[in-house]
């Protein structure tokens, strides 16, 4: 429940979508595209692999070995993991893969293939207003630029063809502003 725009996937299949993201969306197809993107990150274990490859929370393990207090060790490890999860960025190819496969996943589920691309366009427009910059949190520092992502998705959306549901009325009736 935050004004920051974002959706995140965590190891274990947990996906979080912020309130501001939902309020910014126009329809269910945009949500399906965003969820598809995050589902791909989960299924491909992108974040987990990134953390393991960087060994960014290695210091917590070292502290744990020096410390015999089990509760303090657990806290050190969990704090380090959360810091790693929130500050990690994925490589461009992993973001591209999640965009592409997430778009295809949403389309196969019956939604308009343009959902994620349309949501990214909304985010790009919101980001153009300097007063909105704070609400983007880390998304601008950890993801490729909106323009590049939209351009990369355009041929994928075109190849999927028109059609697919957007379910705007149902979405608006469900999402509380």
Features:
about 180 residues, mainly alpha, two-stranded antiparallel sheet, 10 helices
Describe what you observe in this structure.
By secondary structure, this protein is mainly α. The chain has a two-stranded antiparallel ribbon with strand order 1-2. The protein is globular, with a radius of gyration of 18 Å. Helix content is 65%, strand content 5%. The model has no long low-confidence stretch (mean pLDDT 81).
How would you concisely characterize the structure shown here?
With 177 residues, the protein is mainly alpha-helical. Helix content is 65%, strand content 5%. It has helices spanning 19-24, 28-43, 46-54, 58-66, 70-87, 92-108, 115-128, 139-142, 146-160, 168-174; strands at 7-10, 14-17.
Structural class: mainly alpha
Number of helices: 10
Strand residue content: under 5%
Distance between the termini: 12 Å
Basic shape: globular
Unreliable parts: none
Order of helices and strands: EEHHHHHHHHHH
The main sheet orders its strands as 1-2
Largest sheet: 2 strands, antiparallel
Q: What's the total count of β strands? A: 2
Mean pLDDT: 81
Helix content: 55-70%
What does the radius of gyration come to? 18 Å
């Amino acid at each position: 429940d935050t004004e920051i725009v974002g959706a995140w996937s965590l190891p274990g299949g947990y996906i979080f979508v912020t309130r501001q993201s939902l309020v910014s969306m126009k329809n269910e197809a945009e949500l399906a595209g965003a969820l598809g993107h995050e589902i791909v990150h989960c299924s491909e274990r992108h974040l987990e692999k990134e953390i393991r490859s960087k060994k960014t929370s290695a210091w917590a393990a070292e502290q744990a070995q020096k410390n015999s207090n089990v509760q303090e060790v657990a806290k050190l490890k969990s704090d380090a993991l959360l810091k790693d999860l929130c500050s990690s960025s994925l490589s461009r190819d992993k973001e591209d893969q999640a965009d592409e496969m997430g778009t295809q996943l949403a389309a196969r589920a019956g939604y308009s293939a343009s959902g994620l691309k349309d949501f990214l366009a909304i985010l790009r427009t919101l980001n153009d207003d300097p007063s909105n910059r704070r609400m983007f949190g880390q998304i601008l520092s950890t993801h490729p630029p909106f323009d590049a992502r939209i351009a990369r998705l355009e041929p994928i959306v075109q190849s999927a063809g028109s059609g697919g549901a957007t379910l705007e009325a149902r979405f608006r009736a469900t999402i509380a502003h």
